[in-house]
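=== RUN LOG ===
request id: a7f3
mode: sequence -> structure
chains: 1
length: 229
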Amino acid sequence: MRRWVTIVSTVILISVLTLLILIQGRVRGVEFAPTHFQQREFRFYEIPLIHLQITPIRRSANTPKTANYLRVNALVNTQPGQPSSWHLVTLSRGLTGSTPADAQLLTNQLSLESGGDDYWRKWSVDHPQQAKVLWPIVQKLAIRELYLLLPPLFEIAQVPQSAVELQARLESRLQADYAALIEDLRESNRNALADDILAEALEDYPENQTLRNLQRSDSALENRRSTSP
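=== RESULT ===
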């Protein structure tokens, strides 16, 4: 009798665990590779709560048409070989909703449709010289994982203007946003990240006085710390 109780209990436990894994252990997500402008979905199963993966990761490509157009027409610089870095776009576990990550700020634009057309693909076709200005900047920021700086740039690009005017407006806005972001990070005591972003900003805009002042202020602060008792 005890043997049958043990068997039945084991079967029930396994059934409940299996049902729990099927319902709450399913993990799905989307990733984006900025070096190749490729997007893919992934999915696997895990044991809930402890997040222990129990099945292999299955992946499938779902790159937006706009991203394919940009690659084919060399509006972004695609590196050879397979991507080595993928940025999370969305992630969902079980019955919980999808949680967005910063990269979605770009992938949403690449998937944007208007009037049955892919909006930014059509914009790039209609504005080839402006597209040569916009997309390399977008890709550089994406590689640096600075997706938060992208939305204003897409807004600026939609204003009728020459490629020269677009370049000037994008760079002016970007330099201001770099400085604001670095200051916000300083105030949040995220100094290491602020240092990294400042170095990247100065690499692009070494003559920007606001950015250089931030660098000098940091050096002065370090000097005061080193000489304080």
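=== NOTES ===
The radius of gyration is 24 Å.
The first helix runs from residue 2 to 24.
=== END ===
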